[in-house]
Design brief:
Distance between the termini: 58 Å
Number of strands: 0
Structural class: mainly alpha
Helix content: over 70%
Number of domains: 1
Shape: elongated
Amino acid sequence: MTEALSLRENVSPTISRRERGAWRQYTALLHNQMRFMWADKEGVVLMLVVPIISIAFSQKLFEPLVHLEGYPHATGSIQSVPGLGIFFLLYLPTMLSVSMFREHIWNTWSRLRVLSVSKGTLLAGQVSAWAFVGLVQQALIVGSGLLFFGLPGGTRLLLISVPGVLLIGCCSAIGVILYSLCRDIAQISGFASIMSLVMGGTAGALVPLSVLPRFVGWIGRLYPPYWALRAYHYSILGGNMNRNFVLPVVVLLCYFTALLIAAVTWFKRDMRKLV
């Protein structure tokens, strides 16, 4: 009994020191990422400012389509706010994977490999900064929709946070997968551009699916943005909660789990990239 107690006393401080060390490493990585983002503001502007400008200019363009959908007194915000919000969130994988790749260009990745930084801490430090930008983006878009663009929904809009967080998680995992599979930034840019257009277009983020051929919607069901937009529309317009909110959230949770497993599996600390 005495030996067991003494062993616990010896092990506990070691575990505590490891936890504190991991937390310090994580905060250092996060601070480094935030500093790089602040120095190179183009990505942050694309994520935070351009969507709101696009929504403002597309309001009148979407109004006739919204009226055809059966909402004659609604503004174009019903389509533009959730649609463009999701479409511009699809830039997050590009920003994340490129920021990870820049560690190789600046020769800082080799230093991270030498240091005793665990795989989980390294991933968390790289992903957290851009995931936070994604959260801020969605909050700004929904808030501006309510304040300036006549977005309906009231308190039900709080439900958007659930599919929004899951979609941000999916996009973050896709960013890690892109980094893991691509050898240079050119490959990342090519794959990410095609991915954004295909996922956003088939989800109905750019144009309502009702004005597109039916097979486009069936293709969209293969990707997370379709289900996120479906849950967003319920949060704005209401309807059948089980079919239009609970089901999409469950599907998004499955996508997030699968993408997270793939990202953690394929990510390797000793990857070599072309710079």
